[in-house]
Amino acid sequence: MPDPVRLPYSQLDQLPDRDPEETAEWRESLDAVTKAAGPHRAAYLMRRALEHTARTEGTALPSLLETDYVNTIPTSAEPDFPGDEALEARITAWNRWNAAAMVTRGARYGLGGHIATFASAAWLYETGFQHFFRGKEGADSGDQLYLQGHASPGIYARAFLDGRLTEEQLDHFRQEAGGAGLPSYPHPRRLPWLWEFPTVSMGLGPLSAIYQARFNRYLEHRGIKDTSRSRVWAFLGDGEMDEPESTAALALAGREGLDNLTFVINCNLQRLDGPVRPNFKIVQELEAQFRAAGWNVVKSLWGRAWDEVFAQDTDGALVRRLREVPDAQFQTYATRDAAYLRDHFFGADAALRAIGRTLSDAKLLELFQTSRAGHEPRKVYAAYRAAVEHKGAPTVILAQTVKGYTLGAGFESRNANHQMKKLTGAEFRTMRDLLELPIPDSALADGLVPYRRPAEDSPEMRYLRERRAALDGPAPARKVVAKPLPMPADKSFDALKKGSGSQEIATTMAFVRLVKDLMRDKETGRRWVPVVPDEARTFGMESLFPSAGLYSPLGQTYDPVDRDQLLYYKEAKDGQILNEGITEAGSLADFTAAATSYATHGEPMIPFYIFYSMFGWQRTADQFWALADQLGRGFVIGATAGRTTMTGEGLQHADGHSHLIASTNPAALSYDPAFAYEVAVIVKEGLRRMYGPDAEDVFYYLTVYNETKVQPAMPAGVEEGILKGLYRYQEGARPQADSPRAQLLASGTAVHWILEAQRLLAADWGVAADVWSAPSWTELRRDALECDAARLDGEDRIPYVTRALSGAPGPVVAVSDWMRAVPDQIAPWVEQDWVSIGTDGFGLSDTRDAARRHFGVDPQSVVVQTLAALARRGEVKPETVKEARERYGL
């Protein structure tokens, strides 16, 4: 019979109870404690019991997802602080001053900048710089630092103290046009010797950090680089954790036990315009999320001033009160007087009032205005030490701070402080006094706040240099030492250039075959990193499973269901394929880590990320922008491309616009190859440009198709046209000497449509049409724009597209499986009459032929559009167009 006191059922009811009487005794004991000492005492005893069983070998109990609103590490358990706290305090004070001065000086030009974020996090960074963050001058890769974008002024101030930046450079914060300025945020492309990782597009930093830590393990397990000493540190804001990407990969990090990863979340309880969780507690919410995902959680909330207060909390009233007060109220406490604190916080019940009577007004103000663990180096050091010593799981440190700390009452804990870009002279004097900096009033008299740093032979500077030398040099730092990769043998590319004979293959399969051959290359084969979001079989990549293996840090702990098949699902600790599951965001984060390994680890890797074309750029264009910022190199493959090649899949699977999105990314070289030999030429050139002696910071985007076709052999002399974006593939036969002429341009699978249109035009209407393959509309446009700019400088440069089509008779009709805006990119530089045909609008489910007829891009529609263009020129009769429409049923 169910116990009437309990819930009507329990999950445990389905399991046999070997001793029901013993179970009943335990319940009765708990009831007795609750009755005698209250439910909070009972809960305390249960938690003590849970902690004890967690430490008992062989006892498996789930851990609590949420703990009290107190520090994880008691003061009595903190390790000895190994540094000189007084010297570190002075160094931190100079950093605070120079960061605020830099932003305030820039405010003269209306440039803005953020002050309050670094002010709250200064000790979180400085403790790392003094004791934990390893540089890149040692024998290994050092640490990887994902630094919070809005804290960049503090990082620049640190580099100024290091001697890596000058006052002139600080005065060019956010003034980059002249070439010597400092970017607003961590942008490797703008400051490639300092920044490694772009992080200010919030949410991408935490996601990228997880996959970077995972890729470090991948390199180690594959025997490419010993990364065992490298640690990934990601500094994040509590408001930033609302971005879905911030928590998207927590389970991956927990599942794979990435104990080389530490998140430091600055919990100042404020997002950009107000409290993060006004009516709730963000620290408790994050703790539950991370614990549930398998992370080690270290809460570092209260400073030492709270210790004596907690010691008086014999019945848990203080802890309960801390837990129940919402975050927005804590922000109010940080700005109110002692009377308000005494009445509002400690007046909640008799036990709290008793504690409150023992505290002076000054003590009350210290507790709520300044005493946060994130502002005390010993607390921060203890949390960091716990993180680096923890094994088997990643660690998140939830460090509580005050936003705008040390900037004065006008900044601290104010909802508007994210938008406050400068301090007044009076506020600087208050800050100087608080930080005890030796800056005379006379230095502040003219309103232009000076930069300051100690003398080179001062104790502070000697200490700073000694600490960084012990940690392998300055940080953050980006250092490229990778050597060029040798080019693979031509035979791998020659196979595609010869064509497929009578066999029909899709360009997707042609690419996979090429990469499979390249992965066998003795010199560079092991450097290929296939990245797939759970669609490897869709793209015909299952042939790589047994030979390359799928990466898993555990290897394969099970017998795969298809083990008896030739192409079985093989996981291995040294597996080469990163099969990420259904996550384009995670796959692109993986790709980014591999694409920048040449800089991060000095090991050039050749990643290719293959995905459903529709779900690449549309979902993750922001990450592609960050990839470009991080100077990534590799191949991005949009498979099953185009709006009409995905038979029956419909609106959300039909991509007609990714090339338009890709064209907005200056680092993306976009190609839409029609034939296998074009794929070979483009990939070979990509390897040369990205991994050769003069390596460029670009990446390649290729769209490939799932539509099988006979692949022709490569005509002679077309390589230049393929790479530049246009070449004449087939000249049209003239039915008569005076036949009307037209030029048909197409990319990708649309080339096959215009080849059929070419036949119909000649056979049915006596029109001679030349067929041109346009592998890259975007590269043609970029070349034309460069020529336009050069002509303004007095150079005589003609765009390639203009030269290629020069003298070609008749109108130009451009066709693609993309929206018309894609080929329309080159229209201004085409001298002939221009017509474009594309797949504008949403996709739909149907056969390929029906979808192409619907969008008006099938061969018959191309014929009608060509005849209409010729009719406008007076080269065919107007009634011919109507006749053609009727003949083809359009």
Provide a concise account of the structure shown:
The chain has 890 residues and is an alpha/beta fold. The protein has three domains: 85-303 and 372-438 and 454-470, 3-Layer(aba) Sandwich (Rossmann fold); 490-541 and 577-710, Thiamin diphosphate (ThDP)-binding fold, Pyr/PP domains (Rossmann fold); 729-888, 3-Layer(aba) Sandwich (Rossmann fold).
Give an overview of the whole structure:
Strand 13, helix 27 (about 675-690) and strand 14 form a beta-alpha-beta unit. Helix 3 runs antiparallel to helix 4, helix 3 packs antiparallel against helix 18 (about 425-435) and helix 3 packs across helix 19 (about 460-470). The strands form 5 sheets. The protein has a 6-stranded parallel beta sheet with strand order 10-7-11-12-14-13, with helices on both faces. It has a 5-stranded parallel beta sheet with strand order 1-2-3-5-4, with helices on both faces. The protein has a 5-stranded mixed beta sheet with strand order 16-18-17-19-20. It is of the alpha/beta class and about 900 residues long. The termini are far apart. Mean pLDDT is about 95; it is low at about 1-5. The protein folds into 3 domains: about 85-305 and about 370-440 and about 455-470, 3-Layer(aba) Sandwich (Rossmann fold); about 490-540 and about 575-710, Rossmann fold (3-Layer(aba) Sandwich), CATH 3.40.50.970; about 730-890, 3-Layer(aba) Sandwich (Rossmann fold). Helix content is about 40%, strand content about 10%. It contains 34 helices and 20 strands.
